[in-house]
Amino acid sequence: MASPSIAKDVIAKSVPVFAKSPMYAAMFALIVLVIFIYLPAFYTLNAAVPPLDQTTRSEGVLSFTASNRRSGSRTILTENDGTTHNFSCKIFGMDPSDCIELKYGGKRAIIWWYQYPVHPIETNKRPVQIEVDGILVRSYKTTLEWHASRQADMPWLVGIATVAFLIMNIFVHHTVAGVGK
Length: 181
Prior knowledge:
By secondary structure, the protein is α+β, with helices and mostly antiparallel strands. Helix content is 40%, strand content 24%. The chain contains three helices and six strands. It has a six-stranded antiparallel beta sheet. Helix 2 (22-46) packs antiparallel against helix 3 (140-176).
């Protein structure tokens, strides 16, 4: 196990310059908390899935993008006229495994969807019902249930994230600022 002084040196070198002051570290942690935790949580808690008859209906051929850490895999629907729609089922970084399976790639589908606010400047197209080759693979009811469960989990996730950021902030403050020397 590394000695505390070695750990302090490694952390001090890896922490950005703006975080080497306790005040700046606290401000940085607060900004990160607001942008990446509180804003998405606010939108998740206040968003409502619209009634099915108020969603947009698009029909075309399904394909998928490669998965990445930030947005996961995206479902792409290409309509007959060449119009493409990129869909995401993620809510607050959680992707339902039953949104749509990759095995449906290349098949004809109908997707009912709506614009879902993620941040003040970002929206996603959220599918609410998906039909592939005439078979319902994701129902509106399933979407409502999954969305409600994410909203119910949100206070816990925000609380855990807040505690983690506070602990990180205290650790950075004590390590970088040398508090308690």
